[in-house]
Every structure is written in structure tokens, then in C-alpha cells.
């Protein structure tokens, strides 16, 4: 396995509220762990939310008793959610903070993923396939057939998310398990990438590179060249690289 992780503040933001974690080595009973979180909230609250969520999830996963990746990720997300709510209760200036999170664990040829919010996980091979489903107002409109995918891309309310870590006492994450094939690459990213670079362009950038580090760098460059309106975080993983 080989991976590369990069976060970038973008062009217009004065603070990076994204956070990530990438370990190709075991974290507790998990064989590896990859996380991207995109925080929201005024002042430093969004930055705190994303960083604390990543830290709490790593800590919780490291001591989890279960050996099932989905169960460990669920426990970690719930722990992060409760800690953010507790912090917001203690610090009124942080009330309303929250964060997305997308997580991946690769066990042999199986990919285990979880997400809350609109940070995404893709599998990239001869095509690009989004595995996670956005928890956003606009995505719900698409699912109901009220707007098409093209209209959703430029909808003025596309940044309104319907689930976030730290938003409510009870949190609902989505979980996925997918078989990986030898040519598959895995991408985790915040919406600072996907709002600036279309899926087809993401696929082309990744497939044109022979190294995940170069691919990750090119994705950041493309997002900034297209406007860089938000923080950008990417993790590119080659599960079968030896």
C-alpha cells in the first residue's frame, strides 16, 4: 500500500478548517486508517471541530475492542460527536460548530468506508465512482428528482449539509463495504476539491499519474487553478502498491 495526503488553504480562505489523518500501519485492531474532516463554525470553531474529530476518532479506534471495521468507525464517530457537543456546551463561542468526516479502512481486498456530511470517497479505475453519498440539501433534492445532477453542481444552496459531527446528540453515519480490484485507487477528499474540479477531470488527473504523490499534488493544483474558493484536502491511496 502507498498513500499521499495533502491539505491546502486554497486561495480565498484565511484559515484551513480541514483536517486529515493517514496511517498505512495498524491503528488498534484496524489494519490502517484514513480520515478527512471539513469543519464549520465561526472563528476557530470549525478548525477545532475537524481537528478534534480526527484526534478523537484515532484515539477511540486505537483502543476499540471490536475487530469489525464498521463497528470501530461507528464507535469513533459517536465518540467524536459527543465530545464536540460537550465542548460547545462549555464554550458558548463554539456553539453551532460541526464537521464532516469521511473514513476509510482497507483490509485486504475489502474497502470499509463511513461518512457524515459531504466529504467524499471515490474509487478510481477505468472510471470514477463515488462510494459515499453526500448528506446535503441539494443532494436530497437530486434524490427526490427535483433537480438534475448538472443543476446541483451550481446550485446556490449546495454547501448546506444535513448531517454533521457535533450537530445533534444522535448522529447517523453511512457505512459502505466494497471489493477492491488490482487497478483500483482510492480518493478521500473535502468539497474544496469536488466543488472546483468535476469528477471526470479528477479521474483524468489521477489516471495520468504513475505515483499517488504526484496525483495528490495535481489535484490540489487543479482546485486552485479553478478558483480555490475553499480549503482543499485529498488522500490518494494505492491499496496494492508493493
Approximately how much beta-strand content do the residues carry? Answer: 25-35%
Shape: globular
The CATH architecture comes to: 4-Layer Sandwich
Order of helices and strands: EEEHHEEEEEHHEEHHHE
Mean pLDDT: 94
Number of domains: 1
Instruction: List the uncertain runs.
Output: none
Based on helices, strands and strand pairing, what is the structural class?
Answer: alpha+beta
What top-tier CATH class fits best? Answer: Alpha Beta
Binned, the helix content reads 25-40%
- Give the C-alpha Rg: 17 Å
Brief write-up:
The protein is α+β, with helices and mostly antiparallel strands and 242 residues long.
Question: How would you describe what is shown here?
Answer:
The structure is a single chain. This protein is α+β, with helices and mostly antiparallel strands. It has a single domain, classed as Phosphatase 2c, domain 1, CATH 3.60.40.10. It is built from 7 helices and 11 strands. It has helices spanning 45-63, 69-90, 137-143, 149-153, 191-194, 199-208, 212-225; strands spanning 2-8, 18-23, 33-40, 98-99, 101-107, 110-116, 120-124, 128-130, 174-179, 185-189, 232-238. Strands 2, 3, 4, 5, 6 and 9 form a 6-stranded antiparallel sheet that branches. Strands 1-11-10-7-8 form a 5-stranded antiparallel sheet. A hairpin with a 2-residue loop joins strand 5 and strand 6. It is globular, with a radius of gyration of 17 Å. The N and C termini lie close together (6 Å). The mean pLDDT is 94.
Amino acid at each position: 500500500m502507498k498513500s499521499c495526503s495533502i491539505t491546502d488553504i486554497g486561495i480565498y480562505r484565511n484559515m484551513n478548517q480541514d483536517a486529515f489523518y493517514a496511517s498505512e500501519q495498524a491503528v488498534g485492531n484496524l489494519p490502517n486508517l484514513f480520515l478527512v474532516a471539513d469543519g464549520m463554525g465561526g472563528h476557530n470553531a470549525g478548525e477545532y471541530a475537524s481537528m478534534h474529530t480526527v484526534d478523537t476518532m484515532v484515539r477511540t479506534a486505537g483502543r476499540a475492542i471490536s475487530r469489525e471495521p464498521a463497528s470501530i468507525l461507528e464507535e469513533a464517530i459517536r465518540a467524536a460527536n459527543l465530545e464536540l457537543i460537550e465542548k460547545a456546551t462549555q464554550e458558548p463561542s463554539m456553539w453551532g460548530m460541526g464537521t464532516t468526516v469521511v473514513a476509510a479502512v482497507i483490509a485486504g481486498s475489502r474497502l470499509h468506508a463511513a461518512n457524515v456530511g459531504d466529504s467524499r470517497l471515490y474509487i478510481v479505475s477505468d472510471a470514477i465512482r463515488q462510494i459515499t453519498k453526500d448528506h446535503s440539501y441539494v443532494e436530497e433534492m437530486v434524490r427526490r428528482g427535483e433537480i438534475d445532477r448538472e443543476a446541483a453542481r451550481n446550485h446556490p444552496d449546495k454547501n448546506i449539509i444535513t448531517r454533521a459531527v457535533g450537530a445533534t446528540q444522535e448522529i447517523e453515519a453511512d457505512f459502505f463495504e466494497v471489493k477492491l480490484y488490482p487497478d483500483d485507487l482510492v480518493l478521500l477528499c473535502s468539497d474544496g476539491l469536488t466543488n472546483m474540479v468535476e469528477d471526470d477531470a479528477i479521474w483524468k488527473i489521477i489516471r495520468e499519474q504513475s505515483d499517488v504523490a504526484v496525483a495528490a499534488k495535481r489535484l490540489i493544483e487543479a482546485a486552485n487553478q479553478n478558483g480555490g474558493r475553499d480549503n482543499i484536502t485529498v488522500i490518494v491511496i494505492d491499496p496494492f502498491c508493493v
